[in-house]
Amino acid sequence: MRIAVTGSIATDHLMTFPGRFADQLVADQLHTVSLSFLVDNLDVRRGGVGPNICFGMGQLGTRPILVGAAGSDFDEYRAWLERHGVDTASVRISEVLHTARFVCTTDADHNQIGSFYTGAMSEARQIELKAVADRVGGLDLVLIGADDPEAMLRHTEECRTRGIPFAADFSQQIARMDGENIRTLMEGATYLFSNEYEKGLIESKSGWSDAEILAKVGTRVTTLGARGVRIERAGQEPIVVGCPEETAKVDPTGVGDAFRAGFLTGLGWGVGLERAAQVGCMLATLVIETLGTQEYTLARAHFMERFTKAYGDAAAAEVRTYLTAASA
């Protein structure tokens, strides 16, 4: 199953200031703030929803196709992703803009001052999915993740026009979208991903009820945080899958992306929705136990041991077949 993942490509530059921002602010001078903070450390992390999802799929042994836009500074990131099983040949490289990045400083009280530079992400709208499909011999599914809004709309329309099944996944971009755009991106989707809060926001902004949305999409997948995930299809009983027990809760960043990576991999293997969700929840658990979105390792024996404990021998036997084949 050839799965393309469209979405933002970015790096996070995270710094820590040992003092308090509040101590540096002068009440009667806030109209002319000019401050510089000497920070203790700089942590540069790979990110962006597209690479995060693709990295997880690559760890599970598939070879997802990353579709997005980056700058000429993407070479090192590209090498990392290729080394971990990701097809990056369809990434557009801007001739004038840097790869998108988030720059953030956090103080001792966990207050943050941050900026997001969209950079090359704005050129994602120039990517034609037909060229991607022609290169790899066709596409079976396209996940349309958070990206340049115009790119998301274009990819969705192209999927409809060309009859390519697609998964709608607004995530971070839902806050800036209006009801018309949300309805456009959602209608006819084979899968609709969101977390529980986003689910309510989608219904509020679109003006469609839960039942109306289920009538317009194939499968609705709602992540529930520590409670796992709920999968709904019109006229069928919901499927609810819980999460494996965590060894630690280190960093929740990228957990949703990891779930999608596992779920999409399960679809690629051809297992059912429940089993695919179990793979997604197991991978998401590994991420929450790790600092950084792509810093975890997937040791197959360890993965299967924990998967078996969480979901039982029958589920593990089915997944083990595909995981073993993927590692061969």
Describe the structure.
The chain has helices at 49-59, 75-83, 129-136, 149-162, 179-186, 196-206, 210-216, 255-269, 273-288, 300-311, 313-327, and strands at 3-6, 10-16, 41-47, 65-67, 69-70, 92-93, 100-106, 112-117, 141-144, 166-168, 191-195, 219-223, 229-232, 239-241. It is an alpha/beta fold. The strands form three sheets. An eight-stranded mixed β-sheet has the order 4-1-9-10-11-12-13-14. A four-stranded mixed β-sheet has the order 3-2-7-8. Strands 5-6 form a two-stranded parallel sheet. The chain is globular. It starts with a strand and ends with a helix.
Uncertain segments are none
Strand order of the largest sheet: 4-1-9-10-11-12-13-14
Number of strands: 14
The level of helicity is 25-40%
Helices and strands, with pairings:
Layout: E1 3-6, E2 10-16, E3 41-47, H1 49-59, E4 65-67, E5 69-70, H2 75-83, E6 92-93, E7 100-106, E8 112-117, H3 129-136, E9 141-144, H4 149-162, E10 166-168, H5 179-186, E11 191-195, H6 196-206, H7 210-216, E12 219-223, E13 229-232, E14 239-241, H8 255-269, H9 273-288, H10 300-311, H11 313-327
Parallel strand pairs: 1-4, 1-9, 2-7, 5-6, 9-10, 10-11, 11-12
Antiparallel strand pairs: 2-3, 7-8, 12-13, 13-14
Helix pairs in contact: 1-8, 5-6, 8-9, 9-10, 10-11
